[in-house]
Amino acid sequence: MKKLLHILFCASVVSFFTLHFSLVNAQAVATLEADTIALGDQTTLNIRNALNYPSAEMLTTGDIVALSQTFDTATRTQRTVITSFEPGDHYIKLSPDDSLLLVVTDVEVDTTAMEPRDIMPLERIPYSFWEIFRWILLALAIAAIAFGVWWLVTHRKTVQQILGMTEPVDTRTPEERALQTLEELRRKQLWQNGKSKEYHTELTDAVRLFIEEATGIRATEMTSDETVEAISGQWPVASSHLKDIFTTADLVKFAKSEPLPHEHERSMTEAVEFVKQLWQLVKPAEEEVQNE
C-alpha cells in the first residue's frame, strides 16, 4: 500500500513539472485582427500563452487607447479592443523587447463631392398638456401675488384695523383730554417730591396743547407773553387765569423760585378753570363748523 502511494506521488510531481515546463517553453503569440485601421476605428489585440499578460492600462499610451479587455481561459487568450485617434504608425508595447505595429489612416472628407443643403429649420417640439398647464398655473400664481401686494398696499388701513394694529381713535374733546392730563399730573405729586420745575413745565405744556387744539393758535411755538396776548385779544375773560399760570411757571423755570404749597395748588386750579372757561367760549364755534 505504501509503495502504491509513493508511486502516485512521484507520478503527480512529474506531471506538475512537465506541465510547468511546457507552459514556460510555450511561446506567447500576439496578433492584431487588423493591423491597419481608419482613424477612430477599432481592432482587437489577441495574446495567447503569455506568462504575463499586459493590462489595459499598460497597453494605453498617448496614441493607443485600450477600450475593453477579456480573457478566454480555454485557449488562454487575452483579447483587448483598441483604437487610436492619431493617424500614423503606432507601436503597441507588449514587453520591453516586443511590440506590434498598428497603422492608423486619416479619414479624408471630400467636401466638393457633397451636395450643399440649406440649414434645416428647427422643429417645434410639441408641448404636453401638463407642461402647458404648469405654465398657466405659474402665471396665475404670479398674478395672484401681484394682486395681493397691490390690495395690501391700497387697503393698508383696513388690514391694520382687521388685525388690531391701529391705535384706537381718540374721540375725546380737547377739554376732556386737557382735564385728564391735568388730573394725571396732579396724581404724580411732582412738587410734593421736590420737582417744582417739572411740575410747572408739564402743567404749562398741557395748557398750551389745549389752546392749540381748541383754538388753532400755535401756543406750543409761542412765548408766555405771546400766548397771553393772543388769548386776551379774542377771549379776555379767560386770559387772567392764563397770565397767573405762566407768571408762576416762569418764576420757577427761569428765576429758580420755589412757590409755596398753596401756589402750586392754585396754578393747578387756575389751569382747570382756564380749560373749562375757554372751552365754553370756543365750543359753540366748534359745533357750527361741524354742523356745516
List the helices and strands and how they pair.
Layout: H1 2-25, E1 29-32, E2 36-38, E3 42-48, H2 56-59, E4 64-72, E5 77-84, E6 88-95, E7 98-105, H3 129-154, H4 156-163, H5 174-188, H6 196-215, H7 224-234, H8 236-254, H9 261-291
Parallel strand pairs: 2-7
Antiparallel strand pairs: 1-3, 3-5, 4-5, 6-7
What this model shows, in words?
This protein is of the alpha+beta class and 292 residues long. The chain is 54% helix and 16% strand. It contains 9 helices and 7 strands. It has a 4-stranded antiparallel beta sheet with strand order 1-3-5-4. Strands 2-7-6 form a 3-stranded mixed beta sheet, with no helix packed on it. Helix 5 packs antiparallel against helix 6 (196-215). It is rod-shaped and about 135 Å long. The termini are far apart.
Counting DSSP H or I runs of 4 or more residues, the number of helices is 9
| Uncertain spans | 16-26
Helix content: 40-55%
Strand order of the largest sheet: 1-3-5-4
Terminal residue distance: 143 Å
- Approximately how much beta-strand content do the residues carry? 15-25%
Main sheet record: 4 strands, antiparallel
Summed over residues and divided by their number, the pLDDT gives a mean of 80
Q: Could you state the order of secondary-structure elements as H and E? A: HEEEHEEEEHHHHHHH
| CA-atom Rg in angstroms | 56 Å
Label the structural class: alpha+beta
Number of strands: 7
Shape call: rod-shaped
